[in-house]
Fold this sequence. Notes:
Layout: H1 2-9, H2 16-21, H3 23-55, H4 62-108, H5 111-116, H6 119-162, H7 164-168, H8 172-184, H9 187-210, H10 212-217, H11 221-273, H12 279-320, E1 341-350, E2 353-363, E3 368-373, H13 379-386, E4 397-399, E5 402-403, H14 409-414, E6 416-419, H15 430-434, H16 443-452, H17 479-491, E7 497-501, H18 509-523, E8 527-531, H19 535-538, E9 543-548, E10 551-556, H20 558-563, H21 567-584
Parallel strand pairs: 3-8, 3-9, 6-7, 7-8
Antiparallel strand pairs: 1-2, 1-4, 4-5, 9-10
Amino acid sequence: MSNKKTSLLKEFRTLKPYLRHYRWAYLIGFAFLIITDAGQIVIPRIVGAVVDGIAAGNAENILRWLLSIILLAIFVALGRYGWRIFIIGSARRIESELRSRMYEKFLTLSQSFYMNHKTGDSMARVTNDLDSVRMAVGMGTIALIDGVFMTLVIIGTLFFSYGVLGLVVVVPLPLLTVFALFFGRLIGPLFMKVQERYSGISEYLQETLTGIRVIKSFVMEKKVHGDFAKVNDAYAQANMNLVRFWGMLFPAMGFLAGLGVLFLLYFGGTEVLNGHLSAGDFIAMLSYLGMLIWPAMGAGWVVNMMQRGAASMKRINDILDTQADIIDLPGAVSLPFKGGLECRSVSYRYGDAVVLADVNFSVPEGDSLGILGRTGSGKTTLVKLITRIIDPPEASIFIGGSDIRSHTRSALRRSLGVVPQDVFLFSETIRANIVYARPQADSHEVNAAVKIAGLEADLPFFPKGLDTIVGEKGVTLSGGQKQRIAIARAIITAPEILILDDALSAVDADTEERILKGLFEFRGGGTTVMISHRVSALARCDNCLTLEDGRVTTHGTHEELIAAEGFYREIFNLQKLERKAEHAQ
């Protein structure tokens, strides 16, 4: 248990640079804290003097003592304000900087991370876990310094002022501290479980809200509500286990703390009756004893808070220590690519499953290539390799004769314009989504992109035209509208190579034909790779190929492929019959 506890506390190593940066703010805050504690420690002596003055019938100095208490109270209040500003303020800044660091880290991680980590869990680490870390470096640190200082000074005051009696009344307090520390160690695992259950709620809620259309379409509201109830109950149960533990711990500590008061009532009361201790000193001792109980009991609270912070810091470090699978190679240049696209013997597998095998093709600069293939034939994987969303083998994919791995990822991706199958739109206006990668684009460029993407006819149906908010992930738009916005977003950047991955699957063939006509005219000499399940769309390309089971089975012009036996011709004839049937109706 000891080694595990030590290991857990080592997780705070990440905070060293932040604590070093704010060391002066913490030192000033600690100075205010010590000054505040000193003022609090003086007040019981003054109260005792007032009580003794009243008992002796001497009212001369009472007003002066009362004014002293008021001034000390103001002094203490200012001190509390000071340590809150410097220590709590620094803790808030550390939380903010750490959250920014985590966000930056999320942006650098590869696709494999997001495939293995749920969004809700990542959100919990950036919110709930960071809150626990802030409490540890804020209130936890304050409670630790405050408790140590108050304990040492008050015990010293009791001993030097009241001798053996001062030590007798604090005898139960070390037992209270040991009790709090021993049981406080058990808090860490309980809190870790609470954090995990909280992440489970975040994950399930995020997934539910994202998939609300599917849930409603299949009338699954009752089922998901029942499943959420189970996740929610698990979180409540984890919290109840923590509450039960605290429910047992605090009354036990309260009982031990009460023993000190009993000792004072008995031994101190006897001294008062014997005339060896004044009533004022008795009141002062009672006040000091009350002030000592908090540090003794608070030891467990501090341990709990530090354990919580360490457990949360571990979850945060898990993210910060994660290394991206795909990085810029040493010496990678940041210049954009120029030229055509070439794949040389590209092969890729997911585990034991071969997805692409010995894929070879080239697209000269300014030409276009169409790719046809069944679901699962490796088309989208090929796009991910070209964009280095997943890393291709060395010297397998080239642009302008340069291995794409020889340039930085940002340089590569700035040279590409990709419209994926699954379009993602931000909860912004249509205009903001279109200019996302090129915010400096003017209205003329935006309107041109809208027209080429075939979105112009839809604008009158949007309440505010291009300034209409699309909702989360474009929830207010049809599939075709989202695809066309994504096309406008890609072409407005004027990419060296445009890749359309079944980018018009949600529009009808006639609309697709109009959009492609305008797109190819706009692109002019631009290099284009188009993946589509419609042969009619691929007919516009200079060359086409078919992918079957990860292999290139045919390669040539549209005319050559429809004249030869094979998959391309088969799909062409099938779709030709479908169009005839549609026109006949």
